[in-house]
Design a protein that fits this description.
Length: about 375
């Protein structure tokens, strides 16, 4: 039910027209992107110089993605987020189509996750996360006293289809993102304790079946073994984790200094510009730098939850909560895996790791949340639309 604005509230109506963008959200994104550019330059410059290439090539490439991401943020902010509720079937269909197209391209490092567009490789799974958040928000935006099993089944089906396609790429890390986001959004929609227990039991049985049927690749099993036993095969499957922990530990409190550090300069840590970029932060900027980075993510998540609280409707609130869940999960898993408390996955560190698809997807997601903030209602006598 909607209660229109009170006739005696001209000041509030005028204030609505002056809603400002969430500058804290934008500033946190820009700060993280700046740190990312600095770290990408730091970890790639030595290798590029050895190959007789300009030391700033990787950073300059990422700068293009950052600029495109800021444009995506602006565009998403200008679009009324409520328009997406009418476009859910089309957005969802396009994402499924792109997730199928990736299997037409040759594998890269044993995985089929990218669509080769020449100068740019599109990774549809990054955008699939945002599409699923919008789709789930559309299903869960109707207020209910109790969440029916029929709605839960519909939600699980919406997530299962892209989840299976992503699992086949294979990309277990991204599939876990889908699971976490779904659980958070269901919980915010009124999932009961009994329903939570049933879903948790089903997830445990499903996980057991996946391992029992041999659907998990050997290298994925190796990552779990290393997590349980960090000293396992330090020159083989344990190399990544061992070097990562050495890099972070050597930074101590204040770090070794920008562009300094043996692990960074001698490229001991693999994929240091993308998956393991936090090791460069830990080695060069130390514990203080790492904590400040974590606080930047906490700031983004906090602002997204504030936006959800102030949203004019449940659709906007659910989108904001879903985006917050994605950012929080990515940051926790990525940083955790570099320290050996989480298994190694291919999840990028939002706005910091190199990569165009992830940056564009994250920036667009924050832009949608900013659109929710711009269209919030300051009127105390106006109920949220449903």
């Amino acid at each position: 039910m909607t209660l229109l604005a009170r006739p005696d509230a001209p000041a509030a109506i005028a204030e609505r027209r002056r809603n400002r963008p969430d500058l804290i959200l934008l500033a946190a994104m820009i700060i993280l992107a700046s740190v990312g550019l600095l770290m990408i330059y730091s970890v790639t410059r030595v290798g590029l110089e050895r190959s007789d290439l300009p030391a700033s090539v990787s950073m300059e490439r990422q700068m293009i993605f950052v600029a495109a991401g800021l444009i995506a943020f602006l565009v998403a902010s200008l679009i009324d987020y409520r328009e997406y509720s009418h476009l859910v079937p089309y957005i969802y269909g396009v994402v499924l189509f792109l997730l199928g197209v990736v299997f037409l391209f040759p594998a890269v490092k044993g995985a089929q996750r990218w669509i080769d567009l020449g100068p740019f490789q599109l990774q549809p799974s990054e955008f699939a996360k945002i599409a699923c958040v919008i789709a789930l928000a559309g299903v869960l935006s109707r207020p209910r006293v109790k969440l029916p099993w029929l709605v839960i089944g519909r939600v699980l089906l919406l997530v299962a289809i892209p989840g299976v396609l992503i699992f086949l790429q294979p990309d277990l890390g991204t599939m876990l993102v889908f699971g976490f986001v779904t659980l958070v959004m269901l919980f915010m929609s009124g999932l009961s304790g009994r329903q939570m227990l049933v879903l948790s039991g089903a997830a445990a049985l499903g996980t057991f079946a996946i391992f029992r049927l041999g659907l998990v690749r050997d290298y994925q099993l190796d990552r779990l073994r290393v997590l349980l036993d960090p000293a396992l095969d330090p020159q083989g499957i344990g190399w990544n984790l061992r070097q990562s922990r050495i890099a972070i530990g050597s930074g101590q409190l204040l770090g070794k200094g920008l562009f300094q550090g043996q692990q960074t300069n001698f490229e001991f840590v693999p994929e240091q510009g993308s998956d393991f970029i936090f090791t460069a932060v830990g080695e060069q900027l130390g514990f203080v730098g790492g904590i400040l980075l974590v606080l930047a993510y906490a700031l983004i998540v906090w602002r997204l939850l504030v936006i959800a609280t102030n949203s004019r409707d449940r659709f906007g609130a659910m989108i904001s909560v879903g985006v917050a869940a994605i950012i929080a999960f990515h940051a926790f898993i990525n940083i955790g895996m570099t320290m050996g408390i989480m298994p190694v996955t291919g999840l990028p560190l939002p706005f910091v790791s190199s990569g165009g698809s992830s940056f564009l997807a994250f920036a667009f997601a924050l832009g949608i949340a900013n659109s929710v903030w711009l269209r919030r209602s300051p009127l105390p006598a106006e109920y949220r639309d449903s």
